[in-house]
Amino acid sequence: MAPLNARELLPSMPDDCAPPDHLPASVHLSRMLERPEGTHVSIGWLMNELGDRSFGVTLLVMAIIALMPGASAFVGVLIAWPAIQLILGHDKAVLPQLLARREISVDRLARLIALVAPRLAWVERLIRPRSPTLFETTRRMTGTAMLLLGLTLVSPVPFTHVMPALVIMMLALAYLEEDGLALLLALLAALCSLGVTAATLWGAVETIDRIDPATH
Questions:
Q1: pLDDT in tens, 108-166
Q2: 20, 37, 47, 77: most buried by Cβ count inside 10 Å?
Q3: Which residues of 149-175 are buried (b: 16+ CB within 10 A; e: fewer)?
Q4: Residue spans per domain, the chain
């Protein structure tokens, strides 16, 4: 059997699908596998190749994991890492060395990109590079919002993790395509999500207090 060619798994992406000054995230991911020389690449190599899109990819992965049952609390703690980096003004996400040294096969990565890239291409019809300066002026605000969203993911109240996970996904897509309008909408959604979570927790506390006044 002929050896598997990772590049054959990638979706077809025309060279003229993006303006010359901006490469859509779906195309960037698909072309990434033209550069590795071996059969495996490290997570650190991937983050370096992603550059300023690394925050977007990191957040997107976290948001997807947070939607899985029982995983939201783990993501809630883990999200503090990129959030603090944003607050400190970092241009790209940097992973701990223990994680950065881990490797993934190029074939497996190609399968993952082949699954993700077409879906990203569909989303890119709705978002595009707009108001890039907003990413600089709101960097610390975004990091703070992410920290607070991470706290709400740890909440023990059922289903309260869904809205913050979706908001994190919105933030991820905004960073992937450098869409300032999408970023503002995501920050507004974050404010709404935090308000809903606070109201839900307050309602839960009030309910417990009515059921068992002794706990007051």
A1: 888 888 888 888 888 888 888 888 888 888 889 999 999 999 888 887 777 778 889 99
A2: 47
A3: bbbbbebeeeebbebbbebbbbbbbbb
A4: 23-207
